[in-house]
Design a protein that fits this description.
About 0% of the residues lie in helices and about 45% in strands. It is an all-beta fold and about 220 residues long. The radius of gyration is 17 Å and the shape is globular. This is Secreted protein.
Length: about 220
């Protein structure tokens, strides 16, 4: 069983990623600092998590590319023209790895590519596809752990990626990536540490028996 703590690794990354998109397919190419293909270990039930967000942080896509050749993974997805940031979350064996943004341009570069302009959510309740989720956040500062507790209003989520939910957090510049899983197998409380103050977008995924996976977005303000 994987642990359910957040994915953040310090130091220099020993594995480089390159993300491309062509004809409805996202491709990820991996190479370590020695020019060889790293061996990947499974993390949270998958070999690879590929997170793609639009430059304005409005669109969020979570994929699990599969190996198509040595060092190359692919997943089918339809992306509209525009600029995106792609994050490859993997666990290379015997290699230090830091998740970093991969700039991804789909279509012509001369079209408008608005950047994110976030403001903290005043109402932390989201209603999507007939499901309601409320976020209660504590410790929104860099001085200690940040706790995100999600109330599902009587719904029982199904297991998803080794827990009862899944959270990705990005800063407004889409440079700081935090991938969080619940603190326990049977709960919907998440805990992480955010090192820098600012606005962050939180995407929370829960899987329901009747409608599948739904992503609930929130925006939080982290203080010094």
């Amino acid at each position: 069983m994987d642990d359910h703590q957040n994915h953040q690794t310090a130091g220099e990354s020993e594995v480089h990623t390159d993300v491309s998109y062509h004809n409805g397919e996202a491709r990820v190419q991996l190479e370590d600092v020695h020019g060889t293909v790293p061996e990947l270990e499974e993390t949270h039930e998958e070999t690879m998590h590929l997170i793609i967000v639009s430059n304005d942080l409005e669109d969020f896509i979570h994929l699990h590319p599969e190996r198509v050749e040595d060092g190359v993974y692919a997943a089918s997805i339809k992306l509209e023209d525009g600029r995106y940031q792609a994050f490859v979350d993997i666990a290379p064996k015997d290699r230090n790895y830091v998740v970093q943004p991969n700039d991804l341009q789909v279509g012509e570069e001369d079209q408008p590519n608005p950047s994110a302009s976030l403001s903290a959510s005043k109402d932390r309740t989201q209603d999507i596809d007939g499901k309601t989720v409320t976020l209660e956040a504590e410790g929104l500062s860099t001085n200690g752990p940040t706790t995100l507790d999600f109330y599902l209003h009587g719904e029982d989520p199904e297991p998803y990626l080794g827990g009862l939910g899944h959270v990705v957090i990005l800063d407004e510049a889409a440079e700081t990536f935090i991938h969080v899983h619940p603190t326990s197998e049977n709960g919907t409380t998440f805990e992480t540490h955010i090192n820098h103050p600012g606005l962050y977008k939180v995407w929370t995924e829960f899987k329901y028996e009747d409608v599948g996976v739904i992503t609930f977005p929130f925006i939080i303000q982290v203080e010094e």
